[in-house]
Amino acid sequence: MSSSEKTAFITGAGSGIGEAAALAFASSGVAVAVGDLDIVNAEKVATKITCSGGLAKAFAIDVSCPQSVESAFESAESWYGVNTSILVNSAGIMGVHEFLGYPAELFSKVMAVNVTGAFLCAQRASRNMAKAGVGRIINIASVSAERAGIGRAAYGTSKAALVGLTRQMAMELGPLGITSNAVAPGPVITPLTQASYNAATIDAYESMIPARRLGLLNEITSAIIYLASDDAAYINGVFLPVDGGYLAGGVAKTGKLS
Ligand SMILES: NC(=O)c1ccc[n+]([C@@H]2O[C@H](COP(=O)([O-])OP(=O)(O)OC[C@H]3O[C@@H](n4cnc5c(N)ncnc54)[C@H](O)[C@@H]3O)[C@@H](O)[C@H]2O)c1
To answer: Within a domain: residue 64?
Structure first.
């Protein structure tokens, strides 16, 4: 399938990694459904794309609500006139809070957006991908799926669950021609992280990441674009860290060698 025949529904595309992915897909000729809870931001991203000659339209979606997911996908598919061929589940929230007082409602909300949301969108998109016999699903997980962090009882748990979901989908959707993979970004500056990082957080990350810097948005989107490409047809069920080596490491300073 050539890029100009492809369609991508990207959740959380009004900001950060989802926005960067929307811009990257559009610049390669893919028609992009810019899905976000924040329709104002989604409209801004869609306008940015159309003003530079790409094909995009904003769709309001609350990924945690089955009715909203159905209506957004139905509208997107009638806009591009065909099925969704690529789904990027980037919508996500952090809900940072200390464990002993972690509110149960906040825990449920983070799971509803980060896990159930990805499940609902993947299930909706893959029903039509299955009819076409081809599809690509990329879930935006996190290094937090494997490394715990203070205040991340829900976030880290949700990202580990999302990796589990990716593998479940790979088993059941693989025979239908659909690949499901998880990209796990290390820290990248976006509105999500800006809200919870301070200078000390960034210093701590830089000392633990072998590349000695945070990631860049285009470094995350390169992995997403690759996993969505025809070249990645045989890659299914992987957890791909894009983290400058963060997950490979342990103690960063080892005495005389550091
Ligand atoms: N930025 C990082 O360092 C980093 C690292 C690892 C993983 N991630 C993951 O990448 C994804 C994108 O993060 P980001 O940094 O771009 O964050 P961001 O806050 O910039 O963007 C997230 C977007 O998701 C949208 N959203 C939130 N709840 C939604 C809902 N219920 N339905 C639809 N849209 C909803 C928000 O409106 C927002 O536009 C998230 O899943 C996040 O966990 C980010």
So the answer is: yes
Known catalytic residue: 80? Answer: no
Atom of ligand 1 nearest to the CA of 155: 43
d(CA 238, CA 85): 19
Average pLDDT over residues 110-116: 99
C-alpha R_g of the chain: 18
Indicate yes or no: pTM above 0.85: yes
62 within ligand 1 shell (Cβ under 6 A): yes
Q: What is the mean pLDDT of residues 82-102?
A: 97
Q: Assess whether pLDDT exceeds 90 at residue 251.
A: no
Which residue's C-alpha comes closest to atom 42 of ligand 1? 92
Task: List strands edge to edge, sheet with 178-185.
Answer: 56-60, 31-36, 7-11, 86-89, 135-140, 178-185, 239-242
Residue 197 CA, ligand 1 centroid: distance in Å? 15
CATH number at residue 206: 3.40.50.720
